[in-house]
Design brief:
Oligomer: single chain
Number of helices: 6
Order of helices and strands: HHHEHHEEEHEE
Mean pLDDT: 84
Distance between the termini: 42 Å
Helix content: 55-70%
Number of domains: 2
Structural class: alpha+beta
Strand content: 15-25%
């Protein structure tokens, strides 16, 4: 992703002044998209720091189509930027090919995150209070990854934001697929930062 975005920024910064003046709307649009991509990256960074945020089922369902649309527009725009600037970036051909292939995927993920994850996450950070959201368990018996040990994975949520990490074995062993769990923590009606779990049935 870094190569893709860097090539796009390089293209913008190295463009002739006359070209920028001739297309007055290009630079503001690129700046706006860049800001949105930063917001799209925010959920991933927060996840990397060990905070488990889960959007509500209702919010995920309501914004799914809007998230897909935002992702497609974002992916196409980032691909266009990369293709416009890739030849000006001093990288080898392999890195350039990888950058072109990665651009639409990364653009899609960032664009969708802005709608589905970033907005409710920021709202929870700014105006959150103690809430509980109910989710249905899909997997309770997986070891997980180095970044997310012993996860509890829920149904109907976006990938990576469908789980709570570091769940004690005794709690997970008491659950099977289809069981419901209340995730409690700071949040709003749109989502919650997981702090504790409570089994319903």
């Amino acid at each position: 992703m870094g190569i893709a975005i860097e090539s796009a920024v390089y293209r913008l910064m190295s463009a002739p002044k006359e070209e920028i003046i001739a297309r007055p709307f290009r630079k503001p649009v690129i700046v706006i998209m860049g800001v949105l991509w930063v917001f799209g990256l925010l959920p991933v960074l927060i996840k990397m720091f060990g905070f488990d945020f889960l959007p509500s089922i209702e919010w995920t369902s309501k914004t799914n189509l809007a998230g897909v649309a935002a992702g497609l527009v974002s992916g196409a725009f980032l691909l266009w930027l990369v293709l416009k600037g890739i030849h000006a970036v001093p990288y080898g051909e392999l890195k350039k090919v990888c950058s072109v292939l990665a651009a639409p995927f990364m653009g899609y993920v960032l664009g969708k995150h802005v709608v589905v994850i970033a907005y409710p996450m920021m709202l929870a950070m700014i105006a959150g209070h103690q809430v509980g959201h109910t989710f249905t368990v899909v997997h309770a018996d997986r070891y997980g990854t180095r970044q997310c040990h012993f996860p509890l994975i829920f149904q109907g949520l976006p990938f990576l934001f469908d789980r709570v990490c570091g769940v004690p074995n005794d709690f997970r062993q008491s659950l099977t697929p289809g069981k419901r769990v209340v995730v409690i923590g700071r949040g709003t009606s749109l989502g919650v930062f997981a702090e504790s779990l409570d089994r319903i049935d």
